[in-house]
Amino acid sequence: MTSYEAAGVDIAAGERAVELMKARVARSRRPEVVDDASGFAGLFDASAFLRYRRPLLATSTDGVGTKVDLARRLGVYTTIGHDLVGMVIDDLAVCGAEPLFMTDYIACGKVVPERIADIVGGIAEACALAGCALVGGETAEHPGLLEADEFDVAGAGTGVVEADELLGPERVRPGDAVIAMASSGIHSNGYSLVRHILATTDLTLESEPADLGRSLGEELLTPTRIYAKDCLALTALGGVRAFAHITGGGLAANLARSLPATVDAVLRRSSWEVPPVFRTLQAHGNVPQAEMDKTFNLGVGMAAIVAPDTADEALRVLADRGVPAWQLGEVVPGTGTALLS
């Protein structure tokens, strides 16, 4: 007799996964979240926007990319949710938006309740760190399309910003300072190149390069640092012109997106030391510097462009919040490019 379970979809496992994740998701709750008894939708009380003069909703969607393959291979599922939230919610922070809520989508070959609960638990934990609520999600079982241990994650987030406080290139001026916020590691970009290096060199996930102090696999799964609350703390100071989330494309390309066509950002390589994991990958993979520059964050996960008289206070605020930061460079007249020198 044919059944849905015989086709590879286990509804009972999905229901158990939901039960396992409920308590973790609840920890990300904001007071504006309204319960939907049916569970089909996430509800958020929009009357919270009444305190705004002209609220703009900001939205972002993204995934984690091929880093999920390393999580699968290592059997570690608790941190990949941080990567998802970092990719989605920190994009909202760039325009100055306060993150409000997020939804997730997980596709897998087979629902293993404990694995799904670990992934969603990580998403919820990271949402709490970012100050947003995880209001809903979907787990889809795709037997025949994905192997039993394969999965992928994606999500979407929504935030709000006052229209006349919107950050961006039009605010940037010559003389502004560029502040770097350290990454926690590779974050979630460049993993296709990482996997290529692992496949074509003597490096393995079990390798223990001397300058890392732990296995390469552990290093590569370091969760993405989440900057949303740090960006909001800087914005509260006044004097913040723009942010740049350093993701795919690297430092210069992402920072250039936050510049008008009338200025350049001159960035000093000498202002920071590139973390060991990047040096290890570059050396073993024989990766040219230009390729490293456009693929990885090289130790800078977020950049802030601030008024020159705000720079010292911005660095103090970030230090108080436990975020390693430094002045990376400055803005000069130019043509809209970021220059690493």
From TrEMBL:
Class of the enzyme per the UniProt entry, highest EC level: ligase
SUPFAM superfamilies: PurM C-terminal domain-like (SSF56042), PurM N-terminal domain-like (SSF55326)
Molecular function (Gene Ontology), one example: ATP binding
Gene3D superfamilies registered for this protein in UniProt: PurM-like C-terminal domain (3.90.650.10), PurM-like, N-terminal domain (3.30.1330.10)
Pathway annotation: Purine metabolism; IMP biosynthesis via de novo pathway; 5-amino-1-(5-phospho-D-ribosyl)imidazole from N(2)-formyl-N(1)-(5-phospho-D-ribosyl)glycinamide: step 2/2
GO biological process: 'de novo' IMP biosynthetic process; adenine biosynthetic process
Domain of life: Bacteria
UniProt keyword terms in alphabetical order: ATP-binding, Cytoplasm, Ligase, Nucleotide-binding, Purine biosynthesis
Compartments reported by the entry: Cytoplasm
Any Pfam family matching the protein: AIRS
Catalytic function, reaction form: 2-formamido-N(1)-(5-O-phospho-beta-D-ribosyl)acetamidine + ATP = 5-amino-1-(5-phospho-beta-D-ribosyl)imidazole + ADP + phosphate + H(+)
InterPro entries: PurM-like_C_dom (IPR010918), PurM-like_C_sf (IPR036676), PurM-like_N (IPR016188), PurM-like_N_sf (IPR036921), PurM_cligase (IPR004733)
Domain PurM-like C-terminal: 173-337
Entry EC no(s): 6.3.3.1
Boundaries of every PurM-like N-terminal domain copy: 55-161
GO cellular component: cytosol
Keyword Nucleotide-binding belongs to the record: yes
Family named by the database record: Belongs to the AIR synthase family.
PANTHER family reported for this sequence: TRIFUNCTIONAL PURINE BIOSYNTHETIC PROTEIN ADENOSINE-3 (PTHR10520:SF12), TRIFUNCTIONAL PURINE BIOSYNTHETIC PROTEIN ADENOSINE-3-RELATED (PTHR10520)
Protein name: Phosphoribosylformylglycinamidine cyclo-ligase
UniProt lineage: Bacteria, Bacillati, Actinomycetota, Actinomycetes, Streptosporangiales
